[in-house]
Amino acid sequence: MPVSSPFGRMNQGWPKKFTTGGNYWATPTVAWSATEATPWRPRTKKSPTPELPKVECSTLIFPFPGSMWINDKTCGQCHPKKVYSMHRSVMQTEVGKIQGGLWGWGAPTGYEHIYGNYDIDDPDGSKPIYGTKTYSKYMQRLTKKFPNIFPEKLKKLPQADLSTIEKKPEQAIYTYLRSDCQRCHVGVRGRKKRGDMRGMGCAACHVLYSNEGFYEGGDGAIPKDKPGHVLVHSIQASREAKVTVNNMTYSGIRYETCVTCHNRGKRIGVSFQGLMEFPYGTPFNNKGSKQPKLHTKQYLYIEDDHHHSVDNRKGNPEGGLLCQDCHTTNGMHGNGNISTTTLANVEIECSDCHGTPERFPWELPLGFGDEFGEKLKVDQPRGVAATPLPVQKEFGTVYPAKDGYLLTARGNPFGNVVREGEKIKLHSASGLNFEIPTLKSIARADSWQNPKYARTAMVKVKKHLGTMECYSCHSAWAPQCYGCHVKVDYSGGKKSTDWVKSGNTRFPDGRTADSNWDDTTPKQPGKVTEGRTYLRWEYPVLGVNGEGRVTPIIPGCQQITTVIGPDGKTLVNNKIWRTPPGLEGGGEEGQRGIDMTPAQPHTARRQARTCVTCHTSSKALGYGIYDGRFMKKSSENVYVDAATVKGELVTSKSPNPGCSHPGPAHGFGPGCYP
Question: Rounded to two decimals, what is the model's pTM?
Fold first, then answer.
């Protein structure tokens, strides 16, 4: 009998048995296949979700009950709105990542966000399904102002067409994205690599895996000597959801869960922990070996974010904040609408908790720090909320309101941050309670830790707080990966994992084609190889973000591309593509697709960068180190071999017959060395 499911009709029968020998995690004994599914449709009044066939409970086992493709039958029985919102969240669609990648290969869609991992729409309109009336109006204003950032629907990312790849080699971006970029969405399980093992769907966040992936709980049916399993069979969520393993008990979602995905792109997860990837793997351990790879990379410890640090202000307990202590349920699960960028999705600002030297958070107007060109109503303080959101009361930990719950810049209450007179208490999901320092209290008491710089930057030069992100100065460092050299090679039948096809190839028990972590994960033509020009972590460049504020900017998708055709012919070599004419002020030739992206590095510390690191730094101003005097021979070949004083080779045996470069002024230097 064919199966009807929340994601459309599947071309296979329902298996008669899902387990072998009573093992919950066993591979089904019945051979069955899946095809790429039709678009997932939400449950609406007009089109209710079809029921799965009735089977005996003893034969119906979901090995991944949190899977996006069956969670309306599991987690969604209590959290139906979360199912709807998660399918449209950036953690599922990855639409912003896709658009950023396309920009570097000729920007075929311009500023429009067209593609996601799945075909999806938003039939209930632009009104968020979560949040206060104030928040709803705020988001609908943003949607009207930036319709390309809040699209009504998305199409599944296409595949490269090899029959036209020679004429249109820019299609190789589809292979690159599907292979190397789209693994980190909750619709799939991801890869079985150290530090990357996680669940899928709801379990991607709410179930803990260790870096090594070994089960350490008490279920005898799960092997403890094979990697690829949860650490323990317990859900991590709020303060009430206690998880006990190895005689230790914790609550809240671990940083390491978030970092299973947030270790590429802006790298905010590993940066929060203080880690910066580097190529050497030293120092050697006591066996003389290099450090083991984590997330397929090796790291150097720089400095962790102050909010991650175990050491805190006097009077506060030891221990850091969890990601969920700041980031709201709307930011994590989505609000029911399709959003495309982090600035569009994240509703919090530093000043929501710390205020300014002149105002407590509740004295600030809504939208402070999140202006997007809007004029603020400075004479209308945002105040506090008397009650949390209904979803917070129903499923989260409800803390005493005291003098009210603080509000985000967009008007939703923090369910865990409360006002107590002129003090602020943050209740962490870990079980710890912290007093949050406010700038107004510090200014009144003149108790600055770095008085000279603090008074100058925040009290005397008030424009800083009105035009800059707090983390422009308070980020200690930022990962900067300049020049992403990408080769897509279609020759010799080379293939790579296709994460988009994997997520769109689904089984009735909730698995996708990658879920078994074996060699059945779908492949696509073309093998992708990446390299870097150089890495930096020191103070980043400063620019202006979409909110209109000065922010750190770091290399985004700085793709320098090489494509090898199916016949082994080099179609493009070290090419930097240009955008269509007129975009980014590029004139008739278009702009080079070398992207710098606004970032919140998540490397905050109390002591901010000094005046000279911005106002006298050519790098901070975007002109490069020492006014960009280095690495200027970008359009020339550089050979290092026996040569005359004029640089003419005197040997005929140089192995390098020549190479090509992206053209002048790309800023990454030559790369031809015999």
Answer: 0.89
